[in-house]
Amino acid sequence: MRALEITGSGAPCGARLNPHVDRAHALAARWTREQGLLLSDVDLSGPRRPADAGIPSSPHSPGADPFRIAPGEEAPGPVAHTPDATGPGVTASAVRDQVLLAAWTHPDVPGAELALIACFEVWVAAVRGHVRRCSGAVAERSVAGLHQVLTGAAESRDAADPAGRALRDLRSRVAPSWRRQVDAALIDLLRGQAAESAGAAVSRVPNPIDHLGAGRTSGPGPWAARLVAYGLRVRIPRQVAASAAFRAVHDAFCDVVLLRTRNAGAPEEPRDELSDSVVVLQRHFGQSRARALAMLDDLLSWRAERFDELTGTGLPVLLAECADAAQRDAVLRYVQGLRDWSAGLLACRPDTAPRDAGQPRPAPRHTSNRVRLPEFFMPFDTRRNPAVDAARRHCREWAEEHGLLRGTRSWTPAAFDSADYALLAALTEPDAAAAELDLAADWQVWSWYADDHLRSRASGAAFRDRLADLLRDGPEPREPWERALVDLWRRTTDELEPRRRREFAVRLAERFEYRVAKLRGPEPADPLALLASRRRSCGAEFSAALLRHRHAAQLPAELFTGTPMRALAETFAEVSALRHDLLRYRATSPGPPRTPNVVAAVAAFLGCRPQQAVSLTDDLCTARLRRFESVAHWELPALTGEFDLDAAGCARLERYVRGLQQWMAGELRWVAVTGRYAGTGDRPRRVRRAHGRPGRPDERFLRRAPG
Question: Where is the composition biased (Basic and acidic residues) (predicted)?
């Protein structure tokens, strides 16, 4: 295998043109016409690209046009179906560009596979252009129809639907053993197109971090990576694909592809798309387009250098996940394919290279963290449990009984009363009975104590191992936090069935496993990776499990494994993590925080000022609250019909979702009055509410879908 050749600066070193480019162009041109996707039949062979475009003639035919049909090649026949100008389709120049891009980015793929990849790229360009030209409703219907083709729900061969007909033809040409993987990648790509169209319909510009996150799951990067694997017939071992090292390579590659393709764009696409990377940076940072382009260049250069580092000097870390030589060879071929793709894109479209390539990224300056907190958005409301006074007395006695108030400065009797953890329980669980509220207040006390205890503990691994032993009813408790946990665990799980008991133990252990992992190493530079870790370590997933046990234990377990319910649980956990990181960021001393923090990671990742990072993190939180609203009001009604829930089941599901909403609202109200953050200016000034949105605790929101 040849050495990896691409430099981190983005220079197209080692880029090669596939020798089968002429044949692939002839086949792709004929296929586009036959499927009715050709919008313009002007000069199908296409003129030669200018010499200054950085694209040489085909290496196997010096001086020849790589896109002129070879002598003796059959000319494309007549168009089978004349496409509507408003329907999906591409121009002749777009066909040429997509084939050329495929030939540069897949230099080692055989001729037949290169033609198939080129046809896929032409189809994607046709669908993407159609979705962006259409209104929101039309685009949504188009994407839904194509999704049905991929899932097998639509079998009719409608001659008026060239995109669906072309997709069926492409799927039939994919090797059967790879069809499922290609279908999954296309479904993700279509999901991204639908989300992009929905955002454009309401003029919603995505947050820069969410923009990159969408690019890693449903953007052009995952699709390009899947085509690389298919063209080379490389299957990544499951344990390697699940490793952190592989995810880092995948994320860096997807970032580079997204930023480069969004920076260039297809010639026929509009340049003012709301999802364009330049527009995203321009709108959220309030900069001119020239300044946004400079920021994009800086971010692109850094992510390209990171990709080069991970697939160069960091390659041994990735290869260490392989079990044998065959797996190592597969990983090496795949990594080389990714690098060939990146180099080929630069060779085909030189304008995607950063303007300041080769210049080192300036180190982030750690200025004062005394930033202005935003007006937090909260569309939900809650009320205080009337048994709060009794809960205050109980949890104070419980904490003293287990020795929790003989610790650090934050755990003196005065500091405990000022924090008022019982009020947090009363606001997050306003409908709990007195005994349930006492238990909830005790869990809040222990959780905060354990967080503080672990933060100052020299050996986090010992804490984690001891926790696992205590949850298995192993050794006798020795320290105050151990005695308190044993009491809580007994009161919570004595009447639980073994399966539910194991679930609680896993959630609690996972929380501190991630906390310990963060103590072992430096703060991740990737805010999305850090947010995924914070989602597990902030304790919200354990809180959601408690709410599910209290309100929806009788509902089928399969209901909670579906996409809507997982989305609710994840957004609930991320709101809590982002909110606390915003509050803790300002409380830290100037400079990088000692514990991982999403706000600091955003500032370092984007190279922005602390106040800008705070605003972006708040926007991340607001986007997740809106996502929670959308799922609860539009996706859950269909879910109740899918699982055929009766009135009692719907009421249980509604209580569970209402409990999540009240928890998020109650936690924010507690922050405004607790002494936990007193003296630091960390309390939010006001809470932004959504006028006209459901927020009253007694308002019903769950309803069956029409029909």
Answer: 695-707
Element (H, E) at 251: helix 244-264
Q: Which of 476, 478, 467 is nearest to 511 (CA)?
A: 467
Q: What is the pLDDT of residue 524?
A: 53
**What is the C-alpha to C-alpha distance for residues 307 and 342, in angstroms, rounded to an integer?**
10
Spatial separation of the C-alpha atoms in residues 598 and 585, rounded to whole Å: 9
Phi, psi angle pair for 183, to nearest 5°? -60, -45
Tokens of 371: 């930033």
Amino acid at residue number 215 = G
Residue 182: per-residue pLDDT: 92
349 alpha carbon, distance to own chain's centre:
27
DSSP letter, residue 73: P
Residue 590 near residue 368, CB atoms below 8 Å: yes
Q: Which two tokens stand for residue 404?
A: 């929790």
The first and second tokens of residue 268, run together, are 């026929």
Instruction: State the Cα torsion 196-200-203-206 to the nearest 10°.
Output: 20
The answer to whether 252 and 307 are in contact (CB under 8 A) is yes
DSSP string, 491-538: HHHTTS-HHHHHHHHHHHHHHHHHHHHHHHSPPPS-HHHHHHHHHHHS
Residue with tokens 């040409």: 173
| C-alpha–C-alpha distance, residues 262 and 280, integer Å | 11
Q: What's the pLDDT tens digit per position in 599-639?
A: 988 988 888 888 999 999 999 999 999 999 988 988 888 88
**Better-scored residue on pLDDT, 87 or 122:** 122
